[in-house]
Write a structure and sequence with these properties.
The chain has 89 residues and is an all-alpha fold. The chain has a domain of 51 residues. 89% of the residues lie in helices and 0% in strands. The protein is elongated. It holds the Pfam family Bac_export_3. Its main location: membrane. InterPro entries: Bac_export_3. Keywords: Cell membrane, Cell projection, Cilium, Flagellum, Membrane, Transmembrane, Transmembrane helix.
Length: 89
């Protein structure tokens, strides 16, 4: 395996991790900002108000995005296992 091939595998791995974690992190960011703005506007500083909606939305996002995450990681693992099988890794 050359340095270029190793770089490509590492680059593909980082991209797959970013793509797989992107939906959940994006939803958590958006919900967190919405709740923070709501708390700033209403001056309600309840701690459970920040956690419960965020956790529920993260679980819903995981349910919806699981097929996409699986396909992304399966594509990466197929590529790596093909490299291993061909003796390239």
């Amino acid at each position: 395996m050359t340095e270029i091939q190793a770089y490509e595998v590492i680059s593909d791995t980082v991209l797959a991790v970013l793509l797989a974690s992107g939906p959940v992190l994006g939803v958590a960011l958006i919900i967190g900002l919405v709740i923070a703005f709501f708390q700033a506007l209403t001056q309600i500083q309840e701690m459970t108000l920040t956690f419960v909606p965020k956790i529920l939305m993260i679980f819903l996002t995981l349910l919806v995005a699981t097929p996409f995450m699986y396909a992304t990681l399966k594509s990466l693992s197929d590529t790596v296992f093909d490299l291993i099988g061909s003796g390239g890794l």
